[in-house]
Design a protein that fits this description.
The protein is α+β, with helices and mostly antiparallel strands. It is about 15% helix and about 20% strand. The strands form seven sheets. Strands 14, 16, 17, 18, 20, 21, 24 and 25 form an eight-stranded mixed beta sheet that branches. A seven-stranded mixed beta sheet has the order 6-13-11-10-7-8-9, with no helix packed on it. The protein has a three-stranded antiparallel beta sheet with strand order 15-23-22. This is Tyrosyl-DNA phosphodiesterase 1.
Length: about 625
């Protein structure tokens, strides 16, 4: 079956499975392998003779468990990257040579400047044919060594010596919102950004124990990110894996006796444990990090990610009241309530520790999702109704707010229904447009940011970046109406236009994009599973997944609105505006742009590594 639209002609399966929240059983990453985040599997094929960075020895075949690494999209990416297929020279590219970027990153970039982004999917029969192997050529035998990633041994560029912080870096302490460092960027764009090794370093405290809540793990890689002096300190892993996937995760941790596990209960079909949070207990106090990155190297390498890092929370005096240490945003109460929702004995000692600390400096609101069906006042505890309640209670109407656009930016998309009234406009948009207790229900513009095919093709990672953008053809072809909302990923101000986003942000901007009414960074993508959906004539809220984010409201900072920082890098110690991670105003798709869809081939133009994308 094929379908034409303004976003190209797609060949689609007759599968009726349109819920891309349904995931394969495993989300664990075998140590040393590189996984496309929260998504893909495709044949990632190379094009034209490889530049030096692509030359690699024949990789040893990984164990099966390394390919069962999460959603089908991630698995497809891993398979394709193991056997990259080069783009074959076509007449349109004949005579064009590859050039090595002059920023010393080592990436080979195409000389072609006239590619217009119209990279259409082709049937498998149209793909370049691989020559049969020569039976006389013996492959070197590799017993136990495995490449550091499915891209091959030389995929990752080593970070320069000064990439990681040796002293406390200049940070924006007003908002405490930070982007991850990105390998290969001009140095100033990492000044004030953080890597996981920075977060866990002694610069921020003398670590005693930690908890890692996440979706995808590479345990060996994670352990190496802790500094040597903290590497044997107890770590609790909170995950959502079941059955075989759980067994593989536990097997990963066998060499590390200090690593323990807590399995999150997922009792509703298609739910995931998608929350990403660190709890860090120090000799000096306690800290919370709420972030968007999985615990695998790919997520901390060349993707745009974000986090909120709390202040260092000091210990309360003994015999303090139960209500002591609360913040004006009730962050302590809400964090304890979120942890209690797991109903996990393994978290009880952490709940007690948090009660013993002073969280009063916190100026953000917690917005979480936990699986369940909620009625009455409980409907407003989680998901988008929690966000709606906070916007209703702690913001004020703005003159001309009908012209203040709502912006959503995400890395995955669920099934929205046959038209916008089913959930997006009928339910979710009402939440995002809430400002105070006004009875006015304006219908402002809604801009949704999701990478185009051309964004992915020209990214630092090339097509494998699409392994972390698991929008499927089965879902996309049923909601073509949604694509009219889409805008490209463009982040020149933060230097991250070519670092594909795995961050998720939502905000309300002024008509001239100089002010924000609010800002949210979260793990929640654009899906009903993440945000919840009303049921039973709007008397019940059903949430499938665990998610977590923090909401910035101007009132908590003594402001009416946040001013937008147009040049957030390099970070300075003086106060500046809010560092939005992408450029405002958003850039609409052109008529030739298509949203990235992971499970169709892209073979008409090579990516920045000279490869094509062929889903398996």
């Amino acid at each position: 079956m094929s379908q034409d639209s303004q976003h190209g002609k797609w060949t689609i399966s007759s599968s009726d499975d349109d819920d891309d929240e349904a995931l394969p059983p495993s989300r664990t990453a075998t140590s040393g392998s590189r996984q496309p985040t929260e998504s893909s599997h495709s044949s990632y094929r190379s094009a034209t003779p490889s530049p030096p960075v692509e030359v690699k020895p024949e990789p040893a075949k990984p164990p099966v468990s390394s390919l069962a690494v999460g959603s089908e999209a991630r698995q497809s990416a891993a398979k394709n990257q193991l056997n990259p297929v080069k783009y074959e020279t076509s007449p349109s590219l004949a005579g064009k040579r590859k050039k090595v970027a002059s920023d010393s990153t080592g990436w080979a970039l195409s000389d072609s400047d006239e590619d217009d982004g119209e990279v259409k999917g082709k049937s498998l029969s149209d793909l370049p044919k691989k020559a049969p192997p020569n039976p006389k050529t013996k492959k070197p035998k590799v017993e136990s060594e495995r490449p550091p990633s499915p891209h091959g041994r030389l995929y990752y560029i080593d970070e320069p010596d000064d990439f990681f912080e040796s002293r406390l870096p200049p940070l924006n302490d007003t908002y405490r919102f930070y982007l991850n460092k990105v390998t290969g960027l001009e140095k100033k764009y990492n000044n004030g950004a953080l890597h996981i090794r920075d977060i866990l370093s002694p610069l921020f405290g003398t670590l005693k124990e930690s908890v890692q809540f996440n979706y995808c793990f590479d345990i060996a890689w994670m352990v190496k990110q802790y500094p040597s002096e903290f590497r044997d300190r107890p770590v609790l892993i909170v995950h959502g894996d079941k059955r075989e996937a759980k067994a593989r995760l536990i097997q990963q941790a066998q060499p590390f006796p200090h690593v323990r596990f807590c399995q999150a209960k997922l009792d509703i079909a298609f739910g995931t444990h998608h929350t990403k949070m660190m709890l860090l207990w120090y000799e000096e106090g306690f800290r919370v990090i709420i972030l968007t990155s999985n615990l695998i190297r790919a997520d901390w390498y060349q993707k745009t990610q974000g986090m909120w890092m709390s202040p260092l929370f000091p210990r309360l005096p003994k015999e303090s009241r139960a209500s002591a240490g609360e913040s004006p945003t009730f962050f302590k109460r809400d964090l304890l309530e979120y942890l209690a929702s797991y109903r996990a004995p393994e978290l009880e000692e952490w709940i007690q520790r948090i009660k013993e600390h002073d969280l009063s400096e916190t100026r953000v609101y917690l917005v979480g999702s936990t699986p369940g069906r909620y009625v009455g006042s409980d409907m407003e505890r989680w998901g988008h109704l929690r966000l709606r309640k906070l916007l209703y209670e702690h913001t004020n109407p703005i003159p001309g707010e009908e012209r203040w656009p709502v912006i959503g930016q995400f890395s995955s998309i669920g099934s929205m229904g046959l038209d916008k009234s089913k959930w997006l406009a009928g339910e979710f948009q009402r939440t995002l447009t809430t400002l105070g207790k006004s009875s006015l229900r304006p219908d402002p513009p809604m801009h949704l940011l999701y990478p185009s095919v051309e964004n992915v093709r020209t990214s630092l990672e090339g097509y494998p970046a699409g392994g972390s953008l698991p929008y499927s053809i089965q879902t996309a072809q049923k909601q073509l109406w949604l694509h009219s909302y889409f805008h490209r990923w463009k982040a020149e101000a933060t230097g991250r236009s070519h670092a594909m986003p795995h961050i998720k942000t939502y905000m309300r901007a002024s008509q001239d994009y100089s002010q924000l009414a609010w800002f949210l960074v979260t793990s929640a993508n654009l899906s009903k599973a993440a945000w919840g959906a009303l049921e039973k004539n709007n008397t019940q809220m059903m949430v499938r997944s665990y998610e977590l984010g923090v909401l910035y409201l101007p009132s908590a900072f003594g402001m009416k609105t946040f001013s937008v920082d147009k040049n957030p890098f390099p970070v300075s110690a003086s106060f500046s505006g809010f560092p939005v991670p992408f450029d405002l105003p958003p850039t609409s798709y052109t008529t030739k742009d298509q949203p990235w869809i992971w499970n169709i081939p892209y073979s008409q133009a090579p990516d920045t590594h000279g490869n094509i994308w062929v889903p398996s």
